[in-house]
Amino acid sequence: MSVKHGLDALIFLKSSLFWSQFDDFKNYLDLMESFVNAELLRMQREYDKFYDDYKDNSDKIPEIEFERYISDYIDRFHVTSDKFSYILRKSAFISIYAFFEAELLRIVKNIERIESFNIEDSHKLSNKLNKGMQDYHLFIEKHLHISIDYNRKEYFAFNVLRNHFVHNELNEIKEPIKLEPLLNQHIKLNTNYDIKNKEFVILNIDKTLNYRFLEFVESYFEKLIYKIESSNRSNVNLNAIYL
């Protein structure tokens, strides 16, 4: 098989259909954040109107009614700004992770299909339970004879965060040091901490987290394509990534 013929197999990974998925995620994140911001702005305007009415009619509006409104407003504002945004951002993060994992698995399955005579059944990831993203990554590197240069600390931080959200969210994070690449700017824990010794819970997800993760995934696939295209080794079966 010629290198050129093999490069033709990159057609899906290099297609507008594949990369349009990143645009879809970006547009969704923009829409999601604008929804939260719009709702907070609507609530702020509602509060301003109520407060102006109260100032003009303080003799007609009982103070207890004003205090009740303020208490209710604070609760609703907190739910929207903190809880709703947390749920939306967490769900978006999990969706991006699932997309990343599914595309790697698609490549793995095609490698197994094309190289079926060279890969023992016991070594096929599709026959194994509890496989994950890192398994797919290592499998691709091994069977395409390439090495993908990516930020491993950042990847493992995303992986720890995903596993926490999906499997263990009701419990504390026992090893927050693994999240260090994302702390402070993208996620916030419950207090100032000694990162080596204590257990913590996530209080807040900043809107920048999902944009950063999406950029990471996009960069990963760009590097994957570059590594395959730039390889001249005859034992690299480029058809294996035809999706």
Secondary structure elements and pairings:
Layout: H1 3-8, H2 16-56, H3 63-114, H4 133-144, H5 152-167, E1 187-189, E2 202-205, H6 208-230
Antiparallel strand pairs: 1-2
Helix pairs in contact: 2-3, 2-6, 3-4, 3-5, 3-6
Describe the structure.
It is a single chain. The protein has one domain (3-25, 90-241). It is 62% helix and 3% strand. It contains six helices and two strands. The chain has helices at residues 3-8, 16-56, 63-114, 133-144, 152-167, 208-230, and strands at residues 187-189, 202-205. The chain has a two-stranded antiparallel sheet with strand order 1-2. The protein is elongated, with a radius of gyration of 24 Å. The protein starts with a helix and ends in a 13-residue tail after the last helix.
List keywords for this structure.
single chain, 243 residues, mainly alpha, two-stranded antiparallel sheet, 2 strands, disordered N terminus
The coarse overall form would be elongated
Largest beta-sheet characterization: 2 strands, antiparallel
Give the terminus-to-terminus CA distance.
18 Å
Question: Total number of β-strand segments?
Answer: 2
Number of structural domains: 1
H/E element order: HHHHHEEH
Helix percentage: 55-70%
Mean pLDDT across every amino acid position: 81
Count of DSSP H/I helices: 6
- The poorly predicted ranges are 1-9, 232-236
Radius of gyration, in angstroms, nearest whole number: 24 Å
What is the chains' assembly state?
single chain
Instruction: Provide the structure class.
Output: mainly alpha
Percent in strands? under 5%
Across the major sheet, the strand order is 1-2
